[in-house]
Specification:
Largest sheet: 8 strands, mixed
CATH topology: Rossmann fold
Organism: Aquitalea magnusonii
Number of domains: 1
Number of strands: 10
CATH class: Alpha Beta
Strand order of the largest sheet: 1-9-10-8-7-4-5-6
EC number: 2.1.1.181
GO molecular function: 23S rRNA (adenine(1618)-N(6))-methyltransferase activity
Structural class: alpha/beta
Oligomer: single chain
CATH architecture: 3-Layer(aba) Sandwich
Low-confidence stretches: 9-13, 206-217, 222-227, 229-233, 328-332
Radius of gyration: 20 Å
Keywords: Cytoplasm, Methyltransferase, rRNA processing, S-adenosyl-L-methionine, Transferase
Shape: globular
Strand content: 15-25%
Catalytic activity: adenosine(1618) in 23S rRNA + S-adenosyl-L-methionine = N(6)-methyladenosine(1618) in 23S rRNA + S-adenosyl-L-homocysteine + H(+)
Helix content: 25-40%
Length: about 325
């Protein structure tokens, strides 16, 4: 029987993925051209360079809108107040990292085109992973979420970009106790699943995390600062919190993934805390995963990692790629 492969975490890279479009400083002139509404929020920072107030939800949202328009051709991107506003460069790193993961099944060739199917668990109002995956690699995507208002906003983004309508599908998760169940249909296959899990065990933990961000941005630690950071950084209850935090959420995902072991080539999740890795890697071994990977990622001062696992060995993954990707795979 082939040996199982469980790669250890590597030191976090000093910069973004080499294929990430967001290297270096933002070109605010180009971003304002792509999104004129950003202009009032761009001011000189302490070093005399153009920047925005990253504690301002409106400024960060408009920066995202500008980045998606400038680099990916996405028009009319928006999210309702109070919903999670993702960092585009970091989310792009996730997509490029899973492209590398899939490329390992076919001698390093990057899989491109609609034959590649991605499932985003908890796609949210922002729909960012399907948008980036389709823009960068032409993949066919399904975004699933339990929150109907979030899906309604995601649908509005698709309506503003008609070319995406045939390549991105939205599905409502009606089961609070499931992640894949009720979403993955009988006989359906996905090449990779992605997830940005709720990191916190409670709303109080989420508020404490937001306060740490607030302080890191140099904001005053006064009554106003202590009360409002969560509102600044955004996130609905289901986006931020899960009993037991991200360790419990990803452990539940691992347990449920065994039921779909032959319908998905790779399962993946973002992981905020390295402290959760040992328990989750133990859970993967107990679940019978044949392969697992931990990919370190970095954006500025922020360090995170991508946890990936598969119930197919290397030969099984190569057979999967030969069966499903041959006509549409290309690249180097």
């Amino acid at each position: 029987m082939p040996a199982k492969s469980h790669a250890q975490v590597k030191p976090a890279p000093a910069r973004l993925h080499p294929r990430n479009r967001h290297q270096g400083q933002y070109d605010f002139a180009a971003l304002i051209a792509a999104c004129p509404a950003l202009k009032p929020h761009v001011k000189a920072n302490a070093h005399g360079q153009p920047s925005i107030d990253f504690a301002s939800p409106q400024a960060v949202k408009l920066l995202n809108r500008a980045l998606l328009a400038q680099w990916y051709g996405i028009q009319g991107w928006d999210i309702p107040a109070g919903y999670l506003c993702p960092p585009i460069p970091g989310r792009a790193d996730y997509i490029h990292s899973i492209a590398d993961l899939l490329a390992g099944s076919q001698q390093g060739r990057l899989p491109q085109g609609p034959a590649i199917r991605l499932l985003d668990i908890g796609t949210g109002a922002n729909l960012v992973y399907p948008l980036l995956a389709h823009a960068e690699y032409g993949w066919n995507c399904v975004g699933a979420d339990i929150d109907r208002p979030a899906l309604a906003n995601a649908q509005a983004i698709l309506q503003a970009n008609p070319a995406l309508a045939s390549q991105v599908e939205l599905r409502h998760q009606t089961r609070a106790d499931a992640m894949f169940g009720g979403i993955i249909r009988p006989g359906e296959r996905f090449d990779v699943t992605v997830c940005n899990p709720p990191f916190h065990a409670s709303r109080a933990d989420a508020a404490a995390g937001s306060l740490r961000k607030w302080r890191q941005l140099g904001k005053q630690d006064d009554k106003r600062g202590a009360r409002n950071p969560l509102l600044n950084f955004g996130g609905q209850q289901q986006e931020l919190c899960y009993p037991g935090g991200e360790r419990a959420f990803v452990a539940a995902m691992i347990a449920e993934s065994t039921r779909f072991a032959r319908q998905c080539c790779w399962f993946t999740s973002l992981l905020s805390s390295a402290d959760n890795l040992p328990a989750l890697q133990h859970a993967l071994r107990a679940a019978g995963a044949r392969q697992s990977r931990v990919v370190a990622m970095a954006q500025g001062q922020k360090r995170s990692r991508l946890l990936a696992w598969s119930f197919l060995d290397q030969a099984g993954q190569q057979a999967w790629a030969a069966r499903y990707w041959q006509e549409d795979s290309a690249g180097a």
